Amino acid sequence: MAASLKLYTLYNLMGSLLPIVVSLVTVPLYLRLIGVDGYGVLAIVWLFLGYFGVFDLGLGMASANQFSKLSNHKEMASVFWTGVWTNLVLGIIGAGVLFFLGDYLFEHLFKMSNEMHASVVGALPWLALAVPVITVSGIFSGVIDGRQKFLMLNALGVASTFFLQVLPLLTAYLHGPNLTWIIAVTVLSRLLFGALPMGVVAIRILGAVKPELPQWHWVKKLLGYGGWTTISSMVVPITGAMDKFMLGSMVGPAAVTFFALPERLARQGAIVPGAVTRALFPKLSAGNEYDAREITLHSLDLLLLIQTPLICALILVLQPFLGIWVGWSVAEKAGPVGLIIAATIWIVGLNYFPSMLLQARGRPDIAAKLRILELLPYFLVLWTAIHYLGLIGGGIGLLFVSVLDMVFLFFGAGLPVFMNKIFWVPRHFKWVA
C-alpha cells in the first residue's frame, strides 16, 4: 500500500474512531434521559430522514468522481456550483415531500405513544429543513473527498459529530424528553457545525468564491453517473433500515432500541474497510481498469488479515460490553441479536470493496441492478424471521441480505475472491468465535 494511501486510511480511521468515543459516553445518557422507547423512536426518525438523502440523486458521489479526475480549476468550479444548485433544488423538493407525508407515515407505519407521535409531528418542519442540508452537504464532502483532503474532512466530521451528540443531549437534560426540541437542535447543529464549515472549506479548496449558474452539460454528466448511484443509494437505505422499520411496526419501538444499540456497536467493526475504501476511491477513479482491480484485490487480502481477528474479538466481548455500557437488563435482550449482527459485519466489510470498485470505474449501474434483485427475497426472509422469531429475526434478515450482497457484488465486479485461500481461512476463525 502506497505511503499516501496508508496516511489517508489513518486519517479516515481516526475520523471514525473519535466519534465512537463520544457515542460511548452519550448513548447511556440518552437512554437515561429519554428512555428506551424514546431512543427507539429517535432512531426511527433518523433512519427515516436518512432515506430522504436519496434526493441527492447520487450527485455527491458523482462530483467526487469528477473532482478526482479534473485538474482545471475553472471546470471544477463549474462542477461544484452546478452540483450545489442542483442538489439545493432537489433537497427542497425532498423537504416538501417529507413535510406533507411525514405525519401520515409516522402515524401508520410505526408503533409509538400519542405523546411521542405528537413530538415527532411537531418536529416535521425541522426534519424538512434537514433534507436540503443533507443534499448540499453531499457536494461539499464530494469536493474534499475527490481532492483527497482527508485530514480536513475527518476533522470537520469529528467536530460535527461532537456537537450533534452533545447539544441534543444537553437539550434533553434542560427540557426533558421532548423529541421536538431534540430533533430541532440536532438539525441546527448539523447545519451550523456540519454543512456550513464544510461548504467554506470546499470553496477554499477550489477557489470557487464567486457563485456560478448551473451548466446543463454538467447536470447531464453528473446525473448520468449519479442516476444509477441514486438507485443503489435508494436500495441500500431500504435494506439497511427495513429491519428496524419492521421491528418498529411489528414489535414496537423498544425492539428498535434493542436492535439498534448492538448494531451501532457492531458496525464499528467495519470502520477499517470503510477507511480503506474511502481512501482508495479517488485513486481507482483516476487509474486504469487493470490497476484498479489489482489494487482492490491486494487491499482486500490485507483487510482480511486485519479484519478477521477484530471481528472475532468483537463477537466475544459484545454482550459483556453492552452490560457494562447500557446495563444488563438491556444487554440480556440486545446481546443475542448483537452476536448475529457482529458476525454479519465481517461480510459487510468485504462488500465495501466490490461496491467501491464498481463506482470508481463508472459502473454504479451494476451494483444498482444487483441490489434491486435482492429486495424481494430480503423482504420475504425478514418478514418471516421477525414474525416467528421477533428481535432475533431482524439479525437473521441482516445476515441473509449481507451474504446475498456479497455473492452478487463480487461476481458483478469480477473479483475472484472466493477462489482465494486467504478468504476461506479467516472465515473459519470467525465462525469458531
Automatic annotation (TrEMBL):
It comes from the Bacteria. One of its GO terms (cellular component) is plasma membrane. It holds the Pfam family Polysacc_synt_3. The chain crosses the membrane at residues 12-33, 39-59, 79-101, 121-144, 151-173, 179-201, 222-239, 245-261, 302-328, 334-354, 375-400, 406-424. Its main location: membrane. Keywords: Cell membrane, Membrane, Transmembrane, Transmembrane helix. The keyword Transmembrane helix applies. This is Polysaccharide biosynthesis protein. It is found in: Cell membrane. The keyword Membrane applies.
